[in-house]
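User: Quick sanity check before I run a bigger batch. Here is a single chain. Can you write out its predicted 3D structure?
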Amino acid sequence: MKDTLTRICELQPAYSSRNTPEMQERGRLVRQTLAQEIREIEGPLTEALGPFGGDFLVEASDGSGNKGQLPWVRFCSERMSPKPTDGFYVVLHFSTDGSGVNIAIGCNSSKLCNGYSIILPPEEIDQRTEWAYGVVRDAFGTLEPFTDTNDFGATLRLPKSFERASALVKKVPVSEIDDAAMSSLLVEAALRLQAIYAAQREGRDLTPADQVELELLRVVRPAVRVASSQGYGLTVAERNAVELRAMMLAETWLREQGYKPKDTSASKPYDFEATRDGETLFVEVKGTMSDRADAIAMTHGEVALHREAKGRTALILVTGIGLDKASAEPAATAGELEALVGWDIDSWELTPKVYRVARASA
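Assistant: Done. Predicted structure follows.
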């Protein structure tokens, strides 16, 4: 691998969008030689990917049509990232000045739309990379050794988006390229990718609204293959454990604020009726294993309540709930609580996703 990586770095300063002799050589090395050399260390990489190593995939590209400024080789779980335009993966990029190889754990920076590749908005890419930082930091306690900048010297729009989507980077200077060191770093990257995949499996990258929408999609269109990050799905017992954890934290918070909460979740379109100083607050609780809750799912009755009783309702969001599946009965733990008292539902964007379509009476 050392000779291949070194030679690709040597060819990088000769970049041209045309199929010059240098670009032809670089293309062969990237697409064929290097891709095959990564496949040859499949064993330790799949072991590092753990339960996501069974469908190990290696892909490479030096550009489609015109030659790319940042050729790449990536590996991943095919189910979790069936295409470079979907999901997270480990990818090797080469600095444009030939100074080194960048091992990155990143995500897609574009998506396919009507047969064309559309670059994602910067804020969407940033949201996903910041989420990945948090997952790795939680799992490993540090981002080391993937703490280098994601500046590979790109000047063109698509390659710049590749840089932005590289969440965690370790740059290996040409003088330090070594077969054993590179293999070790790729294994370390695979371990972190496994942590990201595991978090996706739990739905931590999806909003509660995304999760509900996906579950509905599985029911109404079971033949549709959901994408990698859409592996979210809890059993009834697991879902109940998450909901009970959120309710418990919400009730504790309400009591700490001086309210007397009454659980009304079984009979009303809200979860608690909380009284304090002669006033009543109608409280809706949403609990999720997701790390974010900037979009939630609500029933027609819940929406109507928050509009009709505006100023007298509250939305309590509990994110990051953990789930211990080792015991016979799943147990939910942790959770970060955010209370929006006097929540104005109309300050959020309401988007109808599902309609109840009933046959008209004769």
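The mean pLDDT is 89.

User: Great, the batch can go ahead then.
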